[in-house]
Every structure is written in structure tokens, then in C-alpha cells.
Design a protein that fits this description.
Distance between the termini: 27 Å
Structural class: alpha+beta
Strand content: 25-35%
Helix content: 25-40%
CATH architecture of the largest domain: Roll
Number of domains: 2
CATH topology of the largest domain: Pnp Oxidase, Chain A
Number of helices: 5
Number of strands: 9
Radius of gyration: 20 Å
Order of helices and strands: HEEEEHEEHHHEEE
Shape: globular
Largest sheet: 9 strands, antiparallel
């Protein structure tokens, strides 16, 4: 631990210029995400999701991005989990992607709203059967007696649905889309003079503006 303060690395792979980014930050994100895929970044869709309770106490965890389009960034969860409960009380969120091999970070701020039920149902049925059963078996974020109790829940759910071709989506499970009002692209550069370009819009129906931030 005595060497922790001395841990550092120099970033020097790429640069990020206003002249070489898209006018639309969603398009720019897709470009960077495609490059992360080509670079075989481990789980490039893993993102930190930060939420806050009504008293402003923050919480954060890693979730998986499951889609991005003109509306924003999609993920799925148990609506009764801690994040689901906090989102129902306070829709303001932040997302962070970190792609270390490319020395890149993307920060997103916006509001999370529930996806239409039919969209959540369609995605639920695209998941592996075990994941569908798990959504029924796990009371996410709640205290459980033991792992044995979870296994027993899964066994009961498995027995209930048996060989049914279709497992219904639980009402407590579904998707959110984060509608962004701010997206920042960060590229590591030498001497800690990193490139930071931020897209902002004052409202969801407003035009994006692009500005450079000091590192």
C-alpha cells in the first residue's frame, strides 16, 4: 500500500479534436464503441450507473448497456432493487464507461425513464432461460437468509414453469433508457493534459453544443 501514491501511467495513444468528432454525441459514442469492440476491450458495454436517493445519498454499481439509439442508453433491472427504487424517486443519473486499452472514458448525465412494457418483454424473452428464471427467483437488493434460500427459490420457479415454452416477464422487471443532457468524451494524453470534449443541451429537445474542458 505504501506504493499506491506512486501508481501512474502515461497516456499517449490518441488525441481528441473538435475537428474529428461527430456533431451528434450518440453518433460519436457509437464510433467509439465500435472501436472498443474492434480492440476487443473486455465487456465494453459495462458501465457504472450512479443513482441518488431522495436525501441525495449516492450509490453506484456496474450494469450492462443493452442498446443505444436516438432516445439514449438502455439497460434492464429489477424495478424493486435499490437502483430501481431510487430511479422511481429520482430519475437523475450518471453513467461512466472506461475503456482502458484505448485510454478512453465516456461520462453521461441525464434522466432515466422506464421503457415501454412491450419493449421490456421483447428483451426479456431474448435472454437465456436461466436468466429469465433468475429474474423471478432473486429478490434483488433485499436481505436473504442464505445462498441455499436463493437456490431453493430458483428450484421452485423452475418447477413452476417446467417445460413451458414461454416464461412471463415479471412485472417487477424491465428496462430504463437514460436520456442524456450531457455526454463527455475523455481521451488520455501525455503530461496529464488529457482531451475532454463535452456535448451539452439545456433540455431534451434542444440542440447540442460542444465545448472543450480543461483536464
Amino acid at each position: 500500500m505504501s506504493e499506491l501514491a506512486n501508481l501512474r501511467r502515461e497516456y499517449a495513444q490518441e488525441e481528441l479534436s473538435r475537428d474529428h468528432v461527430a456533431d451528434d454525441p450518440i453518433e460519436q459514442f457509437r464510433d467509439w464503441f465500435d472501436e472498443a469492440l474492434k480492440a476487443e476491450v473486455h465487456e465494453p458495454n459495462a458501465m457504472t450507473l450512479a443513482t441518488a436517493a431522495p436525501d441525495a445519498a449516492p450509490s453506484a454499481r456496474i450494469v450492462l448497456l443493452k442498446g443505444v439509439d436516438e432516445r439514449g442508453f438502455r439497460f434492464y433491472t429489477n424495478y424493486e432493487s435499490r437502483k430501481g427504487t431510487e430511479l422511481s424517486q429520482n430519475p437523475h443519473v450518471a453513467l461512466v464507461f472506461w475503456w482502458a486499452p484505448l485510454e478512453r472514458q465516456v461520462r453521461i448525465e441525464g434522466e432515466a425513464i422506464r421503457l415501454p412494457e412491450e419493449e421490456s418483454t421483447e428483451y426479456f424473452h431474448s435472454r437465456p432461460r436461466g436468466s429469465q428464471l433468475g429474474a423471478w427467483a432473486s429478490p434483488q437488493s433485499r436481505v436473504v437468509e442464505s445462498r441455499k434460500a436463493l437456490k431453493e427459490n430458483l428450484e421452485a420457479v423452475t418447477a413452476k414453469y417446467g417445460d413451458d415454452e414461454t416464461i412471463p416477464r415479471p412485472n417487477h422487471w424491465g428496462g430504463f433508457v437514460v436520456r442524456p443532457t450531457e455526454i463527455e468524451f475523455w481521451q488520455g494524453r501525455p503530461n496529464r493534459l488529457h482531451d475532454r470534449l463535452r456535448y451539452r443541451r439545456p433540455a431534451l429537445d434542444a440542440e447540442w453544443t460542444l465545448e472543450r474542458l480543461a483536464p
